[in-house]
Amino acid sequence: MNNSTNGSLIAAIEELSEETACSYEPQLLLEWKMWFVGMLGCTTALVSIMHNCILFYTFNSSKLLRRRNLTYLKWISLCDIFVSLSYIAIMCVQVYADYFKSLGLFILWHHYLVIAFTVSNITFSSSSFLLMAATIERYLQSTGNSKDEENPEELDNPVSTAVFYFLSNHRSLVVIMCFVLGAVFRGTVIFEIVIVYQPDCTGFETYYVTVSQLTEDPLFDMLWKFWVRKIFSVFLPFVVLAYFNAAIVMNVRKTDRDQTVKTLILYVTVGSKGEVTRLRSRLRTVTRMLVMVVCTYLFSNILDVIIAFWENIDPVTLTAHKEFYTVTSDISSFLPILACALRLPIYTVNDREIRMEVVTTVHVICRRIFGILPCCSPMCKRGKWATRGGEIDTTYYMPKKISMRDATRGRGMSGLIMARAQLVSRKDSFDSTGSVCIV
């Protein structure tokens, strides 16, 4: 659940609290909400839950992917599961209760609303912090790969080096810190809404939601909710991810351009065309995946950032146009769920290893649950990726080693040029390949 959902829900709660006792007002634009939230939103959330369950299981069970240190991706997928579940529990169930006039769903929704609302806020914010950590680590790694050995002074940046080694060597600690920050910045919502039971009323008038007295404190409302919570959990992740992902794309382009020049020497001297093709393919893969990740995040959060800014600058005008506020809040709440559902297609389309492991996971799950889809393909048997003993067959993703003696034998000066370019490009190519999917 994003910030616009929080704002619209709090606004609705404030309106309900102003109503007289034993009164109930259904949601605005109920037909629109049923089609958009109840059908499209619920379907997308279910797809997101299925996709991210597959991703989380794959990242945990695959020996190959565990060697690639995809810790951030694994926990982001877990956060996406809870965010999607919370969307169904908070948004969809409320629409179903009003549309079908189901008193049971209405009472159930009020019983778990506070917990679901808190969990959704914490996991959504934690997911943003995890994505920030992964992006910053990938940026520092791509910056390090782009440094030239002939300019050693560019490598001496103690701050960047310390941050990179901390993020890369203490990923478990960083994950814990991200969840702690999410709980600190968003966990206070559990004290901001209260469920009120009216025993003298009947039907849908029995329960209503209101804001707590804590939100009436001007210091808490302005200092904490805006200057601390919204800036650090809404605006800051948006700006940081936009900047660092753009910087990553430029650094990767520069690095692979230099590697392509070195590889062209190989092509001229010995006619090795395969390495040029592999480097160009990796450049396209990294660039495409980074662009798709940043575009989905920016697209899914841009409306939320606008509404959050509008709520604090001119809330009167926004709440005066209730239909417009309702529609934009529903769309803004739906877009992050769509982004969660698109993570699996983005990873599998751009990364061959993740694609093969996901296909294997789907085959294994289907065989165990339904007894179908027999393991008849090399992908399912992991034949291309692992040996019988479980060791990774590196011939499929690591270049073959070449020694200086073999490279220079019988080729004179051209052999020396070829060997130097080959050894440098081997190192750079392994570094960039091993970190393709950190973001």
UniProtKB/TrEMBL annotation:
Q: What is its main location?
A: membrane
Say if the entry is tagged with keyword Zinc: no
- Localization (cell): Membrane
Q: Does the keyword Membrane apply?
A: yes
Residue intervals of the G-protein coupled receptors family 1 profile domain = 51-347
Q: Name one GO cellular component term.
A: membrane
- Which SUPFAM superfamilies does the protein's record reference? Family A G protein-coupled receptor-like (SSF81321)
Which keywords are on file for this protein?
Answer: Membrane, Transmembrane, Transmembrane helix
InterPro entries the record matches: GPCR_Rhodpsn_7TM (IPR017452)
The membrane-spanning stretches of this chain are 34-60, 72-97, 109-132, 173-197, 231-252, 289-311, 331-349
Q: What is this protein called?
A: G-protein coupled receptors family 1 profile domain-containing protein
Organism field: Mesorhabditis belari
